[in-house]
Each structure stands twice: as C-alpha cells, then as structure tokens.
Specification:
heterodimer, A: alpha+beta, Uridine Diphospho-n-acetylenolpyruvylglucosamine Reductase, domain 3, Enolase-like, domain 1, 5-stranded antiparallel β-sheet, 4-stranded antiparallel β-sheet, globular, B: alpha+beta, Aldehyde Oxidoreductase, domain 4, 5-stranded mixed β-sheet, 28 strands, binds flavin-adenine dinucleotide, Ald_Oxase/xanthine_DH-like (chain B)
C-alpha cells in the first residue's frame, strides 16, 4: 500500500475530534479502516488528515434502551454479531452482519464505519434502512438525529455535516410476530453482494400484515422496495406473496458492473426478495 | 497476547513429522511433510521484497493510462527536485541501452517479432506499459513524485477484438500488421474424414483472458559493486534469466548473478524476462546503487503477463456410432501487444494435444497469433494444453449429446486402449504408457455415477429449480518439457535438459544442487527423498540448494511440470556417479574387487562377509585423502544432466457434479472426483497438494476468473474485488485417488503433476454446467460461467 502523504491524529475526546474535522474539510474519520484504507491504497482518496476515533470509548458498545437498541458507531462487526441486545432486540442486524466480509475484517470493521461509508453494496445500510434506524450525529454544536431515509444521500455520500461524527444508531425494536431474513447473493464467499435483500415481515395467520424490504446494491444508495412492501401487505402466503415480490425492483436504478447488468440485478431483486420473505415468514 | 515464539513453533512443526522409521523403508512413496514449511509458515522467509542492501533505493514506474498512443512529450523534471527523489527517467533516457525484451520461441517462418522496449519510448501499446520512473529513498516518496511527471499522448485507436484485428481496415498495433504468425499442421486425409461423415459437429469456444495471480507479487532487487551485478528477483527461471539479461543489457554473463530467493508461486507468470528486471539492472548500473521494485497487486494485474485468450473454432467428424473420423482446429490466439519470452509457443503447446486420448483418422491444426493493444499473454499453468483439453473434452460431450449416448461411452469407443501402448497419435506424439480404463473405472465408483444420473433424471422430471449436471474430463497432457531434440525441432530457443549435483560433505551429510527452481513445489523435500533412497542416507541428512546462479551454476529451471521428470532424474544420475566413485574407493579400502561389493542401506559390503564401508565413511575417507587409489579424486561429488527422449503423459479421469440454481444462475460444485495417473509417486502429500491447487485454478477458469478490458482498452479487473479468485470456502472437498502406470521415459517412472489438475478440471466443470442446462436447450455457456451468463443462457434458450 502506497498512499499519498497524510497527517494522523488521535483525539482523546469526541469534542476534540469534531473540532479537528470542522477546521479541516479534507480531514477524514478513521474507524476500522477497512473501507478507507483500500481507497488510500488505490490513491482514490487524498485526505489531509486521518482522525483516528478508535480510542473514543463513548462511541463503542451496544445498549438495550427499552424501545430501541443503541449501537455505538465504533462497535466492531464481530461485537455486533455476538451482542445479546442485538440478537434479542434487532436480530436482522446480527443476521446481516454475519454476511459482512470475512472474520478478520469483521474484527476490525465497525458498524458505524460501514454506514458512514454509505456504500450501497455494503450489507448494513439496507438493513438499517429497512428497520427505520435513527442516526445520532455529534459535533461541537451538540447532537442531531437523522432518520435512515435521509442519511444515505448518494454513492459514498452521507448526510453528516463537516465536523459531525456518527456516534451511534438507534434501531427501533419490532414487537412480537416479526420474522427476519437477510438474503445475500454473491459469487465468492468473501465477495460483496451483487444484490442483497433485507426483509422484516410480520405474519398474521396465513398472510402478511406488514413488510419492510431494504435492497442492497440496487441503486446509488440503499433503497426500500416500497412497491413490494405495499403489495405484500395483506398478501396470503403462497402465490400472492410470490406475485407481490415481483414488484421488488420497481423504481430501482441498479448499477451495471462486471458482476451484473441492471436487468439481471432487477431479476435477482425479485427472486431474492421472494426468498427473503419466505425465510422471514418461515414458509418453504 | 504473548509473543509468538517462532523458534518453538518451527521446532514443533519439524517434530510433528510423525514418520521416523529407519532408512530401510523406501523414501519414495512416503507422505513426508515438507522440509520447507516450518520456515515458510513461521515467516523466516527471504521474499525479494524482504531483502535489503546498504543504501537501497526504490523505483516506481509511471504506467500508460492509454491502450494505444504516440508519446509526444515526457517531462520528468517536476519529479526530480522533490524530497527524497534521487532520479527520474523517461523511456528516451534508456533508448540507447535498454535493448528489446526477448522472444525465445519463433514458432513459424512468417513470425513477426516487434521491437519490445522495456520502457516505452515513442508509442504505448497497452494500458500499464511503463513510460517513466522515479527512484527515491523510499517507495512512498517515489510514488508521490510520480504524480509530478507530465506525459502527453496522442491517442491511437485501440485494437481489442482478434477477428476485427485481422480485417483489412483494422488499425494496426505494429506497422507490420496485426498478424504475429500463422501455422498449420495436417495429418491424415482430413477432407476424406469429413466427406460424407454421418455426424459433423462445429462449435466455437472462447478461452477467456486470465491473470495468473501468484500469492507473492513480483519484486526485483538489483545491486552492483561496480564490477559485478546481482539481481534478486521473484522468478521461476534464474538460469534462463541470467543468459537473457546478459544478452539484453550487454553485461557479460560471468559478471552477472541471478538469485531467485523464496518465490511465492508463479504458475508461469514468473517464467519471463520482465521489463522491470531489465530496468532495475540498468538503474543499478547507471546509479551505482541498489535499486528495488515491488509491484502492488493492481499493478500486477495490469502488467504480469496474462494467460489463455483464444478463440477456438472446432469441427469434429464422426461415424454414426460415435467413432471419431477427424478433427479440425482453427485457433486465434491473442498475443497482446508484444511477443514475450514464449508467447507464440503457448498455443503451439496445444498443437498436438487436441486429439488427446482419442484415435482418429485425420487431424488438422491451424493457429494464427494476433496482436492486440492489451497486456501480452504468455505461459499460464498448463500453457496450451488446458485450451486443447477444454476444446476436445467439450466436443466429446457435444458428440455424446448429439448421439444420445453417455459421454463416457463415447470416450470409451474412441480412446487408446491400455494394451495399445506405446501408441503414436494422429498428431505424431508417442504416448509411452497409460490406462484410461483403470482411471475411469476407479473414478466412476468413487463418484457414484449411476446414482447421480438417477437424481438428475428425477430433478428434471420434477422441474426442480435446482438442476444437477454431471461433467466428465478424461484428459491427458504432454509435460516434463524436455526432449531437447524435440524442442529444437519446434524452434524453441533453448534445450530441455536439467542438471543436478551431489556434494558429499566430510561428515557424511549431503548437499544437493539442482537446476530446477522451486517456487512452492517442494523440491527440497522430494529431492531429499530421492537422494535418501539412492545413497542410503537419512532423509534428514540431505539439504537442497537452488535458485542462485552462483551456487546452482547450471539449470533450465521450473515450468511445464518438468522438475521431477527431468531435474529429479538428473539428481538421481548424480547419485549413481557418487556411488560409482564410492565403490572404487570402498574396494580399495576393503581390498577387494569392486564387483565383490554390494550396495544396500547406505553401505558397500563385501559379499558374504561383514566387511563394509558406509557411504559416510567413504565421504570422510575421500575428504582426508590419506589413502586414495590411483586416479581417484579427493571427493565423491558428482554432476549429471538428464535429457529424456520423450515427453511424459500424465492422464486421468475427473468427474464433477454441479447444482445450478436456474432462478439465479448460480453454480455450486457438489462433488468432485479426480483419479490421476502421474506415474510413480515420490511424495503423495505433495502430489495431492499439486492436484488440489491445480483443480482450484481450473475451476476458477470455469466459474470465476476473467480479465476484462473495456471498449477503450482499459483493464477493468485491477483489484481482487473485480477479478474473482475462489477460496477454500467456494470449493468442494476434492475426492482424490490415483492409478499408477509408470512412465517409460525415465528411470523413476514419474510423469509430472504440476499442471494436471488445471488441465483436467476446467472442461469437467463446464461440461457439468452445460449438462445441467441441456434439457432447457442450452448447448454452451461461455467461461467463466458466472451466474449472470448462466441466467442469460437460460433466458436465451427460453425465447
Ligand atoms: C476485503 C473486504 C471485503 C469486504 N466485504 C464487505 C461485505 O461483504 N459487506 C459489507 O458490508 N462490507 C464489506 N467490507 C467493508 C467492511 O464492512 C468495513 O468494515 C466497513 O465498510 C467500514 O467500516 P470501518 O470501520 O472499517 O470504516 P473506515 O474504513 O475506517 O471508514 C469508512 C468511511 O466511514 C467514515 N467513518 C467511519 N466511522 C465514522 C464515524 N463514526 N463518523 C463519521 N464517519 C465515519 C470514514 O471517514 C470513511 O469515510 C469489506 C471490506 C474489505 C476490506
């Protein structure tokens, strides 16, 4: 790795970190480094400073807060996967995190870094979007809440202002009756998703009462499959559900790359949504 | 966490070698753990990039972002004054001394070998070609300064498609045109074979472009003391490289030393004389200092020579019962922008292999080498033979489908029967030995062929979205690249012999010097086993030196599954000479005739008595030289070369079952059986390792890997996120077994195993994929069979 020259600072407090960031718009937060360092290596990013937040304990850890689970931005993927609060309160996050990269990377990469990076191919953005997570940003000016639907602005672009640091994310707990699944489609075990589908579904007798579907890598940001969600509401398990999932790719503009052209990705979104919903509802 | 005690770990690994029986048990055939591994696993390695020299400088190269352009200006002055920068140069600065990178295999009379400057001077012909360089006190400063170099390009049209490149109106890669060479080989009456043939099958297959992807990226370190030069480089061919570097740079051979330290894989990609090797040497000469270059993975994807890239048009004629009448092969082979060390020879290594294990009346092979504005291609694991094997094994499946006969049955009706060996094929090679029936029978029973066919039928009946496919590959290959005479007939620029020496040390320990250059194959272990058996010394008492032209002074290096078959035998021959000398000395000391001595378990014994001298005692006696017979030197050491009179022909039967998800196009290998016949086996563990890696690479071509250039000639697959390599998690458990039909062309009966797995597995996998989809009307899926391609093939067939 031969990055261009940069300065390195490791603030002792969030306030200090946010001040450094506010003063220098070319400075970047360094968390686990698993997305930022590859960019530096390829000289696709030229930050003036890396602000290592790795020692800020207040950014780390998972807390059960009654109606929601609060996941500190610096919590590693591995910690998230093992967290009892996450597995109890928002199991979809744990399920999806198990699909992120490989074990070594999961020990370094962080929950907040994954989201702040705002890569639509990342597995967690679609999950947090589907669960209507709330992002907590902190700066010298205080704290601000950003709903998931507003956080992902564009490809690798989030809604944080200069000087703002992602402190954590509130994931609302869904009550009883909900089932979850994350369906990731990728070519090799460690590869990124060509398409991924995060599904949270509430079953009521033989049909679906409510569904939330987040799509990975189906646009320049993670997206909700609103049309499929609407069609799924009230759909009877079986043929009706299958037909509802045909709507999964509606209004998406998936990317074209070596692993799939847009029409193939749309096709995958439909197939995988059906699989995800069936798995979430426990139907074969 | 406590510090890892690497010393203790190395010790443990060394001791965990459970096998510690007396030397009376033969070493050959024993699954010895590799002597190399403790050191490699505990990081006590000497990769070129780990090496340093006093005052070391680092060079980085500026590479062309254009596929094809005239260079109108290069200004390196901006880089020169920057911190840490010692020098910066453009191609113009080397124009008078850099020579041309060599091509050592002019395969035809009409071949065009364009000038190939290590650093482009006036024109670039592929993305990644070096146009300038910065030399600095560290790599980071050099890379920073690279951004201050200005280059003006006048774009020229890219030439990317081989068929278009050969049309009259096509832009040219080189002035002489886009055709590098053309050849044709005809055997038998091809016209007659096709005339009135009841079955004629015609298919076009594409061998995609591959990137070899050795674990260790390339690195070069060149140094000089003002008089002599040393180049440490991650190469497979230190000996050949020394000769070539001497010729290219004009540095006299005797003042040039080449060292291949630990080398982490090559697969053919380090069988090369690279621009960077030449340039580092020139820089060391010019600056009088040590200069090192280490590539990044992305730089490597651009500029390590690529592999495969052929368009194969095949026509096969058969009788109604499936008996083969004739085969016509028409190849376009993408050379890329230049001819490198053996670029044009690669497709020619398949010239006599398309007919494979089958008997037929007539055969025609035509090949045209084509220039394009891409990275040059050259040897990649199997080189020419995987392409041929893929072509014929796919065609045999197509023939079976056409006739409605089981694919193995079609093969049985055509293959050379075991009692017919030695057999001279339609392409003119003489296969010395083989038993295709035995390997196939064994594979079938391990695979559970009939049961899988029944399951396949059931899934087809049920319209299961997951279909099962079964693929067959009954391959052979020619390897052990040796017979110098045959290589000469094919106009190859070097011989194919190998060299080995034995040094008997005073304490009875043995130093082996080999001309082969291992880079992962375990020669140190295998050669130790050969020597231990031959000289009757303990395995642990043997060490093997290699990969340094100052130590191993003669050699033809490692490629083409040749090391054991040629180099291992050279070592064995040297052992024989040692024993001859030792016998003379023993007879003198024991006061008997040499004929009265028998050699067993490392000692010469006077027949019928207890009087004996061990080989160790004799080594010491030769060392002290107190009592040597007339005319005997004060050493038992010996050198030998070996040059067999034929190639060797491993073969085997690989069977693959895949599950294809017809909704997504995803292919999953469910089971894989390989029964290989690589002749006698020196070390079964090493053989299995070679087969595992080989199959993985062949599967990778079938399902994952592809170097992709866009319409402007930019390589898109510059990282491992885009150029997909499978890992253990993506591969099934390979079920392996062997049959053992000894080769007759060497005294050990060994055949070579380095490439077999790669050659065999690609068609087995693709045949399985096509087999799964055939009822849907799919007849082929282009490699790699990605989920998207499989899905599109199904969509196409549904319409
Ligand atoms: C080989 C490989 C494979 C991978 N595969 C996958 C995969 O399959 N699925 C997947 O989802 N991910 C994958 N990843 C990415 C991985 O999940 C990373 O952990 C994640 O993308 C980034 O987290 P990080 O902590 O390493 O962030 P960093 O790399 O440190 O930072 C990423 C970006 O986020 C910003 N940032 C980080 N933390 C904060 C914060 N608290 N506040 C504000 N900005 C912040 C940084 O400035 C930077 O721009 C892979 C990574 C690698 C190297």
């Amino acid at each position: 790795m031969i990055p261009a020259q940069f300065e390195y600072v490791r603030p002792d407090s969030l306030a200090e970190a946010s001040q450094v960031l506010a003063e220098d718009e070319d400075a970047k937060v360094l968390a686990g480094g698993q997305s930022l360092l590859p960019l530096l290596r390829l000289r696709l990013a030229y930050p003036s400073k890396l602000v290592d937040v790795g020692r800020l304990a207040e950014l780390r850890g998972v807390h059960d807060r009654g109606d929601h689970v609060y996941i500190g931005a610096l919590t590693t993927h591995d910690e998230v996967m093992r967290s009892e609060a996450v597995n109890d309160g928002c199991p979809l996050v744990a399920l999806a995190t198990a699909h992120v990269a490989d074990r070594a990377i999961r020990h370094r990469g962080t929950f907040g870094g994954s989201l702040a990076h705002a890569d639509p191919a990342g597995d967690l953005p679609a999950v947090v979007l589907a669960l209507d997570g709330v992002f907590v940003a902190r700066s010298a000016g205080g704290e601000r809440e950003i709903p998931a639907a507003e956080f992902f602005v564009d490809y690798l672009e989030n809604a944080l202002d200069a000087g703002e640091i992602l402190a954590g994310v509130r994931i609302p707990k869904l009550g009883p009756g909900w089932g979850f699944h994350y369906e990731k489609f990728h070519r090799t075990a460690q590869a990124w998703a060509i398409v991924g589908v995060a599904a949270a579904v509430r079953r009521s007798n033989g049909s679906i009462a409510e569904a939330r579907i987040g799509l990975t890598n189906m646009g320049s940001t993670p997206v909700r499959a609103h049309a499929a969600e609407a069609a799924l509401q009230g759909a009877e398990l079986g043929d009706q559900v299958r037909r509802a999932c045909e709507e999964a790719a509606a209004d998406t503009e998936p990317p074209a790359d070596l692993h799939g052209r847009p029409d193939y990705r749309r096709h995958l979104a439909r197939v995988l949504t059906h699989r995800a919903v069936r798995a979430a509802t426990g139907t074969p | 966490m406590s510090e890892l005690d690497t010393g203790a770990v190395a010790e443990q690994i060394a001791q965990s070698d459970q096998i510690n029986e007396p030397a009376a048990t033969p070493e050959l055939g024993r699954p010895r753990r590799r002597k190399e591994d403790a050191r490699l696993l505990t990081g006590r390695t000497r990769w070129t990039d780990n090496l340093t020299r006093p005052g070391l400088l680092h060079v980085v190269f500026l590479r062309s972002p254009m596929a094809h352009a005239r260079i109108t200006r290069v200004d390196v002055s901006g880089a020169r004054g920057l911190p840490g920068v010692v020098a910066a140069f453009s191609g113009q600065d080397f124009a008078d001394e850099q020579g041309s990178l060599p091509c050592a295999w002019p395969v035809s009379e009409d071949i065009v070998i364009p000038d190939h400057p290590p650093m482009a001077v006036s024109e670039v012909r592929y993305v990644g070609e070096a146009v300038a360089c910065v030399i600095a006190t560290d790599r980071y400063k050099a890379a920073d300064a690279l951004e201050a170099i200005e280059v003006d390009y006048e774009p020229l049209p890219a030439v990317l498609d081989m068929e278009e490149a050969l049309t009259d109106g096509s832009p040219k890669v080189h002035e002489a045109g886009n055709k590098a060479f053309s050849t044709k080989i005809v055997s038998g009456d091809v016209e007659a074979a096709f005339r009135d043939a009841p079955v004629v099958i015609e298919r076009t297959f594409r061998q995609q472009r591959l990137i070899p992807s050795a674990m260790e990226p390339r690195a070069v370190l060149a140094d000089t003391d003002g008089d002599t030069f040393t180049v440490w480089t991650s190469t497979q061919i230190p000996h050949v490289l020394r000769v070539m570097l001497a010729v290219v740079t004009g540095i006299p051979e005797h003042r040039l030393r080449v060292v291949a330290p630990d080398v982490g894989g090559g697969f053919g990609s380090k069988l090369q004389v690279t621009a960077e090797e030449v340039l580092c040497l020139l820089l060391a000469r010019r600056l009088g200092r040590a200069v090192k270059w280490t590539e990044s993975r992305s730089e490597g994807n651009l500029t390590v020579h690529h592999g495969r890239d052929q368009l194969q048009r095949l026509r096969l004629a058969a009788d109604a019962d499936g008996r083969l009448r004739g085969l016509r092969v028409d190849l376009l082979a993408d050379m890329g922008a230049y001819l490198m060390l053996v670029t044009p020879g690669v497709p020619m290594l398949g010239a006599a292999m398309f007919n494979a294990i089958y008997k037929m009346d007539a055969y025609e092979f035509a090949c045209t080498g084509v220039f394009t504005t891409k990275m040059p291609t050259d040897a990649y694991r199997g080189a020419g033979r995987p392409e041929a094997t893929f072509g014929i094994e796919r065609m045999m499946d197509e023939l079976a489908a056409e006739l409605g006969v089981d694919p193995l049955e079609v093969r049985r009706r055509n293959w050379i029967r075991h009692e017919e060996f030695p057999y001279t094929t339609i392409a003119g090679l003489t296969y010395d030995s083989g038993n295709y029936e035995a390997a196939t029978d064994k594979a079938l029973s391990m695979f559970g062929y009939d049961k899988l066919r029944a399951e396949q039928a059931d899934r087809r009946d049920r319209g299961d979205p997951v279909q099962l496919g079964i693929g067959v590959s009954t391959y052979t290959e020619m390897c052990g690249l040796a017979p110098s005479r045959l290589l000469g007939e094919s106009n190859y620029g070097a011989g194919g012999w190998e060299h080995g020496s034995i040094r008997m040390l005073p304490t009875g320990k043995v130093e082996v010097i080999t001309g082969t250059s291992p880079h992962g194959q375990g020669h140190v272990t295998s050669w130790s086993q050969i020597v231990a058996d031959s000289l009757g010394v303990p395995f642990e008492d043997v060490t093997v030196l290699h990969g340094d032209t100052a130590i191993s002074h003669k050699g033809m290096d490692t490629y083409g599954s040749r090391s054991l078959v040629v180099g291992g035998i050279a070592v064995l021959r040297a052992c024989d000479k040692v024993k001859d000398k030792a016998r003379t000395l023993a007879a003198h000391l024991l006061e008997c005739s040499p004929d009265d001595l028998e050699f067993a378990a490392g000692a010469f014994k006077v027949r019928g008595t207890d009087a004996q001298r061990t080989i160790q005692e004799l080594a010491y006696a030769a060392f002290t030289a107190h009592d040597l017979p007339e005319g005997v030197e004060a050493r038992l050491d010996a050198d030998a070369t070996f040059d067999p009179d034929n190639y060797s022909f491993p073969h085997g039967t690989h069977l693959c079952a895949v599950e294809v998800d017809t909704e997504t196009g995803m292919v999953r290998i469910r089971s894989y059986v390989a029964v290989d016949d690589v002749g006698k086996v020196v070390n079964p563990l090493i053989v299995e390792g070679q087969v595992h890696g080989g199959i993985a690479q062949g599967v990778a071509q079938a399902l994952y890997e592809e170097a992709v250039y866009d319409a402007d000639g930019n390589l898109l697959t510059t990282t491992m996120a885009d150029y997909l390599l499978p890992s253990a998690a993506d591969l099934p458990t390979f079920q392996l077994d062997r049959t053992e039909t000894p080769a007759t062309s060497n005294p050990l009966g060994v055949k070579g195993v380095g490439e077999a797995g790669t050659i065999a597995s690609t068609p087995a996998v693709v045949n399985a994929v096509v087999d799964a989809l055939r009822p849907s009307g799919v007849r082929d899926v282009e490699m790699p069979c990605t989920p998207e391609r499989v899905w599109r093939a199904l969509e196409g067939a549904r319409r």
